Amino acid sequence: MSNYKTIAVEKREQIAVLTITRPDKLNALNKQVHAEAVSALEDLRKDKTIRVVVITGAGEKSFVAGADISEFGGQTPVSQRDVFQSASLFNVLDTFPKPVIAMINGFCLGGGNELAMACDLRCASEKARFGQPEINLGIIPGGGGTQRMTKLIGETKAMELILTGDMIDAPTALRLGLVNHVFAPEELEAKTMELAVRIAEKSPIALQMAKEAVKLASRSNLDEGLRREVDLFAICFSTADKEEGVAAFLEKRKPVFKGI
Known about the structure:
Elements: E1 7-12, E2 15-20, H1 31-46, E3 52-57, E4 62-64, H2 77-83, H3 89-94, E5 100-104, E6 107-109, H4 111-118, E7 121-125, E8 129-131, H5 145-153, H6 155-164, E9 167-169, H7 170-176, E10 181-183, H8 188-200, H9 204-217, H10 222-236, H11 240-250
Parallel strand pairs: 2-3, 3-5, 4-6, 5-7, 6-8, 7-10
Antiparallel strand pairs: 1-2, 8-9
């Protein structure tokens, strides 16, 4: 793995932990973070030993407190648009074939909340705080906040949070469906890794097919989604993992999936 300046990547058997390492800036996203994280994810995409990725922020105060506002000065509409186009970190995460879990340990605001929502699952500390405060700067979310939040929690509450810029606490985020789990701060890492290990034990091919099918559900009509689900289901029947899963079930043992 390359030597990065704003992120760190640690491999724990079949799980990779990608940490944004700018705690003095509350892990704010700048151009270098975007570029390095995209590069790291491309490496992890190709690494067949890695089945699940966990993303978090360094320190106890913040997951990601938003974009680095110091980079906004002098930006033109075209240059800012380029930052958020197809190769953006948010879109790379959204199309990443392996499951990605956000481990949210503090402030999760603006671009940080958009980063978390681009992940597949979200585990939060009881101390985490969420919001899209862009409206307070005279702008709107630009990394998917208006779209992904609406799909996750519904138009009514998403509209309120985006128009007011208000923050919500972790229990509220859980109630709204913005996060999957809330844990005590001292248990966050262990509980998140437990979830990651459970997922990593599954067939990598089935995980990829399942992720694609679920994401399609909110982006297509029912008929299209059902047709694609059948295709993805059928693909699983071409794998050795499917044979192993059936054999293990019949033999009453735990399957050992190899991703083939």
